[in-house]
Amino acid sequence: MSNESRQGSTVIKGGTVLDQRGEQRLDVRVEGGVITEVGALLRGDHTLDASGCMVSPGFVDLHVHLREPGREEAETIETGSRAAARGGFTAIVAMPNTEPPHDSLAVVQMVRRLGAEAGLCEVLPSGCITMGRAGEVLAPMAELAAAGVQIFTDDGAGVQDPLLMRRALEYGKSLGILLAQHCEVSRLTMGAVMHEGGCCARLGVAGWPSVAEELMVFRDIELSRLTGAPVHFLHLSTAKSVDLVRGAKAEGLLVTAEAAPHHFTLTDEMLNGFDPIFKVNPPLRELTDVIAVKRGLADGTIDAIATDHAPHASELKEMPLDQAPPGMLGLETSLALSISELGLDLQQVVALLSWQPAAIAGVAHRHGRALEVGAPANITVFDPDLTWTVTSAGMASKSRNTPYAGRSVRGKVRHTVFDGNVVVLDSEAQR
Length: 431
Prior knowledge:
Layout: E1 10-13, E2 16-19, E3 22-25, E4 27-31, E5 34-39, E6 46-49, E7 54-57, E8 59-64, H1 77-86, E9 89-94, H2 105-118, E10 122-125, H3 141-146, E11 151-152, H4 162-175, E12 178-181, E13 194-195, H5 198-203, E14 207-208, H6 211-227, E15 231-233, H7 239-250, E16 255-259, H8 287-299, E17 304-305, H9 314-317, H10 334-341, H11 346-353, H12 355-361, E18 379-389, E19 408-418, E20 421-425, E21 428-429
Parallel strand pairs: 1-6, 2-7, 8-9, 9-10, 11-12, 12-15, 13-14, 15-16, 16-17
Antiparallel strand pairs: 1-4, 2-3, 4-5, 7-18, 18-19, 19-20, 20-21
Helix pairs in contact: 4-6, 6-7, 7-8, 11-12
């Protein structure tokens, strides 16, 4: 019998429970998909060793590219969810820039079905804001919302037309859904390869100015103010963007934001060798921006760490820098990079990975809940002190485009429990 299909009760034993209430040395018993007891010296039909580990609510990733349908050579819903589970995630939001995109009920239902059949975590399909992500006509948001879609985005492209974005926000507000914006004024980034700065000038390649992101952040903050609709900003990468969101929050506007690990761990200088593994959208920025993103995560300006996991087939990432697609893997290294690089206490890190993104995704009743009796058994067990070296060959993803190969990091997921099933045991996926 596989560990995932264990019958009876399982006790997560010998760890420290870490959730919204703080830390406590407690065991957790799971049965029938829910937590049935939390206490000392618990017994069950099976034991999950958590010695030296933190036992936390499962992580939630607001920003994952699963590629299916259309680019299954890079990733599938099954392989992407396996990588997610190994990274401690019990729920992931699937971005809509697939082929075909998530602009119809048929595609959304297919992604959800494949997630339910093959996924090792809950797969939450997002919906497109516009048809084909073309920025011209609104997608059938009411139909998709009625089918349970809660986040809408044209990720990979920003909605360029301010009037269309205003209408989308007004419509979204009436439907009770959240619009998430990829902030990029495309006229300012045409032909761009990397961040516009000193490194870009030395390499002699086309630059991507920070203002291309910041103009849209400013615009959509003002549109949120005008409409009273919430807006979520994807993968913030510049110091000015962080400051704009900080100011909007101080005013009480309904804005939330996320940052990707690569934007608080890597700078544009990584591209000195013209290696496309470091090409990403938005691009890696300067050290001052990295510091600003870290500060935004520390002071609550940025609500969530989201990986922007973007797998690509090896032959594409091996193309010349100006031709290679942007994107890098993130699911299996997110926790370790957050622990290793942010300088935050563990509760802050888990908040950014778990209950705060769960609230934004609208799944806080299923994921990110405090570990108490009656809560769904979506749980991550991780060793915060384990040091390990990232290898591309060791990834569960179908692709290998990690920029962290060879990097030593601290903190690793040991077990992941999804819907009461042990889907990762001793860092290995169970199917």
